[in-house]
Amino acid sequence: MTSDRRARILERLYPTGEAKLEAARLGEVCAEVTGATGAGLMLMSGDAPRGSVATTDEVSTLIEDLQFSLGEGPCVDAYRFDRPILEPDLANPAVVRWVAFAGPAVAAGARAVFGFPLQVGAVRLGALNLYCDRPADLSVDQHADALVMAEVAAQALLIMQSHAPPDVLAIELERGSNFQHVVYQASGMVAAQLAVSVAQAMIRLRGHAFGHGRPLTEVAQDVVGRRLRFEDDPDANRQATQ
């Protein structure tokens, strides 16, 4: 029953009855409860990744970084389509859907990936990412646990954020987060240069980074440092001389 699963999860999150919870512990419990190798919690808005607030190991950190940089992956789709996204064999998928994401994720050791929306009522926060180091389907129990875990995690994140000022990440979340603020600063500058929306500007930034084989944050730093300027032409960029 859902109530039993929820009680079991809460007992793991608050074993001594303490009300305080760290984001890192929340991520660890996500992996423990579902039997996944690792887990990550990504916040999103406007169909775009904002950054992770918890990852459990190097592979889950890379998975979150890839999704942020590329704008594709299980968390992105889980949030966008508002449903679980399940890929039991990332190296040999039945349907190829993440052309840029899959290769690096598999090379890092992620063989199965699963995304579950983080949602409380009508409020969507992002997605829970789970990965396994071998090809694997989630069992019926694992899938049910992941659904309840995602709901509990979403509520916990809202509680952590509730005392923070508007548009400021709570200290409890900032501590383990990987928010690339320079990328959002750069997307605002590109939006002004091209007279497009910030979402469109982010697509242009990602496209430039991918096309030139560079990390998104490096491209963003060049934009903010005025070493790179985007223009509304087919190539969408040029190196600034000033």
Tell me about the largest β-sheet. 5 strands, antiparallel
**Spans where pLDDT lies below 50 across 5 or more residues:** 236-242
* Helical content class: 40-55%
Structural class: alpha+beta
Give the number of DSSP strands. 7
Terminal-residue CA separation: 64 Å
What is the helix/strand order? HHEEHHEHEEHHHHHEE
User: Do you know the CATH topology of the largest domain?
Assistant: Beta-Lactamase
* Number of discrete helical segments: 10
What is the total domain count? 2
Radius of gyration: 19 Å
Strand order of the largest sheet: 2-1-5-4-3
**Backbone shape:** globular
The H-level CATH homologous superfamily of the largest domain, spelled out, is GAF domain
Write a structural description:
With 242 residues, the chain is α+β, with helices and mostly antiparallel strands. It folds into 2 domains: 2-174, GAF domain (Beta-Lactamase), CATH 3.30.450; 181-239, no CATH class. The protein is built from 10 helices and 7 strands. The chain has a 5-stranded antiparallel sheet with strand order 2-1-5-4-3, sandwiched between helices. It has a two-stranded antiparallel sheet with strand order 6-7. Strand 1 (38-45) and strand 2 (48-55) form a beta hairpin. Helix 1 packs across helix 6 and helix 8 crosses helix 10. The longest helix has 22 residues, at 140-161. The model is unreliable at 236-242 (pLDDT under 50).
